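For reproducibility, we list the full input for the glycine complex.
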Amino acid sequence: MLAGLILSFHFHSLAYLRRMNILILGGGGREHALAWKIKQSPLCDQLFIAPGNPGTAGLGTNIHLSLKDFDKIRETIEANHIELVLIGPEEPLVLGLTDYLESHFDPAKVHIIGPTKIAAQLEGSKAFAKEFMEEFNIPTARYHSFIPSQIDDAIDYIQGMNTPIVVKADGLAAGKGVTICQSHHEAINEVKDMFDGKFGAASSVVVLEEFLSGKEFSVFVLTDGHDYKILPVAKDYKKIGERDAGPNTGGMGAVSPVSFVTASMMKEVEDKIIIPTIEGLNQKNYRYHGFVFIGLIEVGSIPYVIEYNCRMGDPETEVVMPRLKTDLVPLLLSLNQGTLASQNVEQINEAACTVVMVSGGYPGDYEKNKLISIPIVVPTSSIIFHSGTKMEDGHLLTNGGRVLAITSTGDHLSDALRSSYELIKQIDYEGQYFRKDIGFDV
Ligand code: AMP
Ligand code: GLY
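The corresponding predicted structure, in tokenized form, follows.
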């Protein structure tokens, strides 16, 4: 018996210690931060990022492919003897990439990290997420969902709501599908526009929601659908303008930890939101090996769920990974092995911030292909994560709305912020814009 135990222990630890080839899918700042973290693992042999970006090219091999081309992804896994696949963005998850890959590979040989298609609907359909929260008594804003044939009912429902009124497109809309309407009239027009195809198929179902007022923050949970581990808490800055003015963006910066999220608040979140969420996944039999990103709002002293995402956040990952002391690879491997509960997740005590540099005009129209000048040597307390960049003929060019995320760590958040803003002074491209007030409220 004892010999058997020792043998299986050895076998177990050997399985853990073997180096393996790893593939990260995605090409933004989030994937650069994940690659940066995974590259530090002694378990990482060759690292591949598809499609990756010029930042990830310095950490591994970029492979050019479309994340909608599931067959090509499967071939890439086979050709490069990949044993761990981490799916970064929501779109392939919502389209069922995990299910596709799990049907082609033995889970004991290729670990796929990302929820199944049905579980990813927690992000892919706001109506689905709301029903899930209702079923499992998870605190969230009161709501009702409508389809186009119910337009009259939707108008009646709006008339009975207090303003402001939150109008949401049900499906994925690149972070733009939510409008806060100040009047009933505006809400009715917004619903009509959505049904008329403002967000294509994503707004063929509309969710009307009560407006919640409070401070927002984000909690990240790694789960195998049964057990869970909580990662460092973060807060992102969604609005383009300083003091949270103007339209929403993908995220203009982030900080971690978040001073107003106390230990007792985290306990509330764990008891009232995280545990019921994992139990809900379990009860529904939704297979979920991956990250749950819970967008929260603190109303009084009660946390409410604003939204679920089925992946890590961007730019939150750019502060969460630098604060994660524990090796990410064994954590990811433990999801398939049923050993997540016995893993230790340690955070570093320092604070982290990231400041996102964007193209002029973003989140509206903007130009690309601007030459970026960037320092070659960066202080050890800072990292330049790439989002929308590309390399052409040896020149680094802008290639998206969000261009770079400048992350720093420090004993205090103010030290980290100072480092990021100092480094930004050494970065230049035409039309560059960034918020100068990241962390202003914490
Ligand atoms: P979402 O795409 O669901 O994360 O929503 C985008 C943003 O809209 C959130 O980060 C909030 O700032 C805001 N929002 C969404 N739902 C509500 C709500 N019920 N009350 C107040 N603000 C909301
Ligand atoms: N920063 C928000 C998101 O990743 O959805």
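The chain has 13 helices and 22 strands. The first strand starts at residue 20 and ends at 26. Both points were considered when choosing residues for closer inspection.
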